[in-house]
From TrEMBL:
UniProt organism field: Ataeniobius toweri
Protein name: Tetraspanin
Family affiliation: Belongs to the tetraspanin (TM4SF) family.
Taxonomic lineage of the native organism: Eukaryota, Metazoa, Chordata, Craniata, Vertebrata
Membrane-traversing stretches: 21-49, 69-88, 100-122, 222-246
Membrane topology of this protein: Multi-pass membrane protein
Designated gene of the protein: TSPAN7_3
Keyword hit for RNA-binding: no
Length: 258
């Protein structure tokens, strides 16, 4: 008499074919999670570096300061935690953990996509805001506060002077008493008499404005910045795909073994 097999049971050969797929997906997802974790470490390091080294520039751009370093630090820390969580969920082979990991990657993808699109759409508004902030910093320059230090540092590093050109300083209170800031000098030190005379200073200070240099540099690299940003955003889709596939294969494999 022939014995009828239970229709709910999967043939052993099918289960044996599923296990190599699961192992392969686990390997890829762990590799992805480690890369994802490493990007979190980079964001964390950039945030800390920005807070320590670029605080003066952030003060220059915004009257109230900016939370950009804290956003990077917080985002980096969360990515580090979830990167480790992704490795743990993959090794554990827990479907619900993998789904949670996929949900988090989806949120990261959407946030990065919105941030990238918003930055591209409002780039002219951002440019105008930077121009207003820099003009305010030049007008209120006194040579002692944080904004003045940021202006000096920018002028020395970019070899520029003023917003549009070196003559922007003639309408400031600082110029009436001290002349053009020493940070505009092409040589190590200009004489006080030269700095107070625009005609004499023209040959000894940088004549190009800082604002045009900054904005031209940003616009020249806008395509690269946008490409990298969207590339990182769509990188999350790989993790979402791997996490969902692995969760589905593990769930099906557990069902087939019942």
């Amino acid at each position: 008499m022939a014995v009828k097999l239970n229709s709910n049971m999967s043939p052993p050969s099918r289960r044996l074919q599923t296990k190599p797929v699961i192992t392969c997906l686990k390997t890829f997802l762990i590799s992805y999670s480690l890369i994802f974790w490493f990007t979190g470490v980079i964001l964390l390091a950039v945030g800390v570096w920005g807070k320590v080294s670029l605080e003066a520039y952030f003060t220059l751009i915004s009257e109230e300061g900016t939370n950009a370093p804290y956003v990077l630090i917080g985002t980096g820390a969360i990515i580090v935690i979830f990167g480790l969580f992704g490795c743990f969920a993959t090794c554990r082979g827990s479907p619900w953990m993998l789904k949670l990991y996929a949900m988090f990657l989806t949120l990261v993808f959407l946030a990065e996509l919105v941030a990238g699109v918003s930055g591209f759409i409002f780039r002219h508004e951002i440019k105008a805001k930077i121009g207003i902030a820099y003009n305010s910093a030049v007008t209120s320059y006194n040579g002692t506060d944080d904004k003045s230090a940021a202006v000096d540092d920018l002028q020395r590093k970019l070899h520029c002077c003023g917003k549009k050109n070196f003559t922007d300083w003639k309408n400031t209170s600082y110029f009436k008493e001290n002349g053009i800031p020493v940070s505009c000098c092409k040589i190590d030190k200009c004489s006080p008499e030269t700095l107070k005379d625009l005609d004499k200073a023209q040959t000894e200070v940088y004549t190009t404005g800082c604002f045009s240099l900054v904005t031209n540099m940003l616009e020249a690299n806008l395509g690269v910045i946008a490409g990298v940003s969207f590339g990182i955003a769509f990188f999350q889709l790989i993790g979402i795909f791997l996490a969902c596939c692995l969760s589905r294969y593990i769930t099906n494999n557990q069902y087939e073994m019942v």
